[in-house]
Write a structure and sequence with these properties.
It holds the Pfam family DUF463. By secondary structure, this protein is of the alpha/beta class. It has helices at about 5-20, 35-45, 55-60, 80-90, 150-160, 165-180, 185-205, 245, 255-275, 290-295, 300-310, 320-325, 350-365, 425-430, 455-460; strands at about 20-25, 65-70, 105-115, 125-135, 285-290, 335-340, 375-380, 385-390, 395-405, 410. It is built from 15 helices and 10 strands. A 7-stranded mixed beta sheet has the order 2-3-4-1-5-6-7, sandwiched between helices. A 3-stranded antiparallel beta sheet has the order 8-9-10, with no helix packed on it. The structure holds guanosine-5'-diphosphate (GDP).
Length: about 475
């Protein structure tokens, strides 16, 4: 029997629209992007075989058939190193994959059966092309710079440099405070002070655990490593000079040279990222390592809160937002996930989720999301521990069993996760002990163990697999 035209046209339209999805994964460095993407690809490739994905509707309905890797469309973007990541996890001893440090991409084609409908008694086979893009969350920290000129940026940074992370910036401050804004610029001197600035950001990040840095690219320059476009820094003593006097300085002065480089950075680094990549993402998951911040103490935790608020500005689609005005992005679904949930015992997972929700509450309210659905999650991309019960003085307690990075087997209770933003009382008790674990030994060709990756996949892809 010939198909009636409206039904046929409907089918055609549905397929045409739903065949492709660009899903971006981001998070600040060490949030768990590489582990997440490795696990995501692994779970989908093992779908219909040994992957545990019961929280995906299409898996429960027996409709997810599997996924295959395809060659990626954009040959100028590095490939996400999936095979290398898997080789580390399957090594002896197993190791975490080396983190990616720039943007990378991977394309999968997912095969599934459509839901049986009135016209199709049995669902027909379809495929969804999924482009996965991984990029550093640090790059999103730069968005607010587009609204500032160099003078305003120096003013903002001066406060931060002298704040709680001053100890990491001492060397930079000593050199930058001595620089005369009116003197003729000396290339070598500016390159030297820029390197000290970048070092101060790196040690605040690596030694102190602080995440809010600007420019974010200085930490993860990607292909711009060593490029002159990164050779600028804020003048910490800006307040001692009048803005009018600085504006009147000749083009060859330190101040004018740095201001020009600042503008150049905005134009040639920040803007192109949003234009070429960000604007083309359909969906986004932002990964947040809440547990490490909780472990590091109140200053670092508060800093993470600020970093997240800044990062979220890139998802502010309000009509008047900077982002909408400049780039007209099209992300239609967003997930925010607390990673490494296998670092806490299962009964703490609900608290971890409430804590992420509490962290997001303010940015979400302020940023007028209204029209993009957002979901908070907690997950472990690659579960490295197993949950146990131990008896102590006749009582049963939850515990975790795992192997530390040094290869020592431990049975421990890491502590309680607060369900709200932690208060002074929590910090006084300092009841949290975050130990890094080695991934569990992994037989070659087996699906990676995880916690709630299927829930994340269901939220991010489920509606496209109908
Ligand atoms: P990236 O910098 O965002 O790509 O972060 P990675 O994916 O490289 O993760 C950084 C580190 O966090 C890893 O080396 C692991 O030690 C740890 N990690 C990441 N994901 C998990 C997870 O699901 N479970 C556990 N236990 N550790 C994780």
């Amino acid at each position: 029997m010939p198909l009636s035209l409206p039904g046929y046209a409907g089918d055609w339209l549905e397929r045409g629209l739903d065949r492709q999805l660009r899903l971006a994964v981001t998070g600040l460095s060490r949030a768990g992007k590489t582990a997440f993407l490795t696990s995501l690809v692994n779970q989908l490739r093992h779908a219909g075989l040994d992957a545990r994905l019961e929280l995906m509707g299409c898996v429960r309905e027996g409709r997810l058939l599997g996924a295959m890797r395809q060659s990626q469309p954009d040959l100028s973007v590095p490939r996400f190193p999936y095979d290398e990541a898997l080789a580390s996890l399957e090594g002896t001893p197993p190791g975490w994959p080396s983190p990616t440090r720039g943007i990378s991409e991977l394309r999968l084609s997912i095969r599934y059966k459509s839901r049986a409908g009135s016209r199709h008694l049995f669902g027909e086979q379809r495929s969804l092309t999924l482009d996965l893009i991984d990029y550093p969350g640090e790059w999103l920290l730069d968005l607010p710079m587009l609204q500032l000129d160099y003078w305003q940026w120096c003013e903002q940074m001066a406060g931060q440099l002298r704040g709680r992370r001053r100890s990491y910036a001492e060397d930079f401050l000593r050199h930058a405070e001595r620089l005369d804004p009116a003197a003729d610029a000396d290339e070598q001197q500016l390159a030297d002070i820029s390197a000290r600035y970048a070092d101060s950001l790196a040690s605040a990040r690596n030694e102190g655990g602080y995440t809010w840095v600007q420019p974010g690219r200085f930490l993860l320059p990607g292909e711009l490593d060593g490029a002159p476009v990164l050779q600028f820094f804020p003048l910490p003593a800006i307040a001692e000079h009048s803005r009018t006097a600085l504006d009147a300085l000749p083009a060859s002065s330190n101040y004018q040279t740095l201001a020009r480089r600042f503008e150049h950075y905005k134009r040639t680094v920040i803007t192109p990222f949003y234009r070429q990549y960000f604007r083309r993402f359909d969906r986004q998951i932002v990964l947040v390592d809440v547990l490490s911040a909780l472990n590091a103490g109140p200053d670092v935790f508060d800093d993470l809160r600020q970093a997240i608020a800044t990062l979220m500005q890139s998802f502010d689609y309000g009509n008047r937002s900077l982002l909408s005005r400049l780039f007209q992005p099209r992300i239609d679904r967003l997930a925010i996930a607390a990673t490494k949930a296998d670092h806490v015992t299962p009964e703490q997972h609900a608290n971890l989720l409430s804590l992420v929700e509490a962290l997001m509450a303010e940015p979400l309210r302020d940023l007028r999301y209204a029209n993009i659905p957002v979901r908070a999650l907690s997950l472990a991309a690659i579960r490295a521990t197993s949950a146990r019960q131990v008896e102590h003085h006749g009582e049963r307690h939850a515990a975790l069993k795992g192997t530390t990075l040094d290869g020592e087997e431990v049975l421990m209770f890491p502590g309680e996760v607060p369900s709200r933003l932690p208060d002074a009382d929590f910090w006084q008790r300092q009841g949290f002990d975050f130990t890094a674990f080695r991934p569990a030994p992994q037989a070659a060709g087996e699906a990676l163990p995880h916690i709630r990756m299927d829930s994340a996949l269901d939220w991010l892809l489920g509606d496209k697999l109908r």
